[in-house]
Design a protein that fits this description.
Radius of gyration: 20 Å
CATH superfamily of the largest domain: Type I PLP-dependent aspartate aminotransferase-like (Major domain)
Distance between the termini: 53 Å
Helix content: 25-40%
Number of domains: 2
Shape: globular
CATH topology of the largest domain: Aspartate Aminotransferase, domain 2
Low-confidence stretches: none
Mean pLDDT: 96
Number of strands: 11
Strand order of the largest sheet: 2-8-7-6-5-3-4
Strand content: 15-25%
CATH architecture of the largest domain: 3-Layer(aba) Sandwich
Number of helices: 13
Bound molecules: pyridoxal-5'-phosphate
Structural class: alpha/beta
Length: 357
């Protein structure tokens, strides 16, 4: 027996974990600052922690009521019908559902480069092909309709990331509309707003009500600090929202994830503190890092440091973990997640010392 031909498939390269790095370097995990995976520096919403503790006692039951409650709460928040909310095991799980719902074998998706690796991975899992549109560094990775449409040739899904990972830029809603207008009727424009809460502009959910070819992806991993419980959702057009029932796993998000998500949505204080601190940290990094940066609307900043993997390695030896962007095709860059004030100051100070060497 052999698996099918997986030679075109790639392996997801996650930012390194604190325990892993501490073990390698013989350091105490508490002395490390991890700014490599755009996680929430304040941890999960305390409300969610409480809810997870309480939910532990009902872990024996399938998440029927909590799934419905969370779907309804999100629908309410976004003024859409509950059917339009597709819960998944992380935003990644939602990408899988959208691929399942749209791709016939051999259909292609159009993904940004540099960009989030899972778009292409998910398409390949679903027997799809992957084409790329290039964001140009010379153009400061500008996210325009032109950039996307000039590389478009009838793909079934066009992936937009706004704010974009790893550059931090964003598409205007007009650009999203122009892309949806400029692509075939059968093309879904999927706007990934994993970092949407950190940006001050309107969400593309505004467009989902207007048309049947735009969907939006959101996650609890970033602003709500729930990356470890795996919870995300899509907002899809009403016209085909019922496809969810035909493509999702029987219980798309766990009882614990749903309870945590419900509680996190009510914790405005934690979300506001997270967003405000990220805004402060972005400015701090632009102003104090001795390297060129790009304006970011997310909880991270991309910086051009020369040899990204050498700088990331040396920073790691000093106890600061940032993301080497080689796997994004930007070997001259690192991506620094916005930490707490103390973490951000330390990361910038250490990075400046490394750069001065
Ligand atoms: C973090 C992230 C996601 C979603 O991650 P999940 O943890 O699976 O919810 C999606 N898109 C981008 C661009 C991201 O950075």
């Amino acid at each position: 027996m052999e698996p099918r031909d997986l030679s075109s498939h790639t392996v997801y390269q996650a930012g390194r974990g604190v325990e892993e790095v501490a073990r390698d370097l013989g350091l105490d995990p508490d002395d490390l600052v991890k700014l490599a995976s755009n996680e929430n520096p304040f941890g999960p919403s305390p409300n969610a922690v409480e809810a997870i503790r309480e939910a532990a006692g009902s872990a024996h039951s399938y998440p029927k009521a909590s799934h419905a409650d969370l779907t309804e709460k999100l629908a309410d928040r976004w003024s859409v019908a509950p059917e339009q909310v597709w819960l998944g095991n992380g935003g990644d799980g939602v990408l899988d559902y959208l691929a399942r719902a749209t791709l016939d074998p051999g259909d292609a998706v159009l993904v940004p480069t540099p960009g989030f690796a899972y778009y292409g991975m998910s398409a390949r899992f679903h027997h799809g092909e992957v084409a790329e549109y290039d964001l140009s560094k010379a153009d400061d990775f500008a996210l325009t309709a032109e950039t996307v449409l000039s590389d478009y040739s009838g793909e079934r899904i066009v992936h937009l990331t706004s704010p974009h990972n790893p550059t931090g830029g964003r598409f205007s809603l007009d650009a999203v509309r122009d892309i949806a207008d400029g692509t075939d009727e059968d093309t879904l424009v999927l706007v990934d707003e994993a970092y949407g809460e950190f940006a001050d502009g309107p969400s593309a959910v505004d467009l989902v009500g207007e048309r049947d070819d735009v969907a939006v992806l959101r996650t609890f991993s970033k602003v709500y600090g729930l990356a470890g419980v795996r919870l995300g959702y899509g907002i899809v057009p009403e016209e085909w929202a019922d496809a969810y029932a035909r493509v999702n796993t029987p219980f798309a998000a766990s009882e614990i994830a749903c309870r945590a998500g419900l509680a996190a949505l009510d914790d405005d204080e934690h979300a506001e503190k997270t967003v405000e601190t990220a805004a402060w940290a972005r400015e701090y990094i632009y102003e104090n890092l001795d390297a060129p940066t790009w304006e970011s609307h997310g909880n991270f900043v991309l910086a051009e440091v020369g040899d990204g993997s050498a700088v990331a390695d040396e920073l790691q030896r000093r106890g600061v973990i940032v993301r080497d962007c080689t796997s994004f095709g930007l070997p001259e860059c690192v991506r620094i997640t916005c930490g707490t004030e103390a973490e951000t100051r330390r990361a910038v100070a250490e990075c400046n010392e490394v750069l001065a060497e």
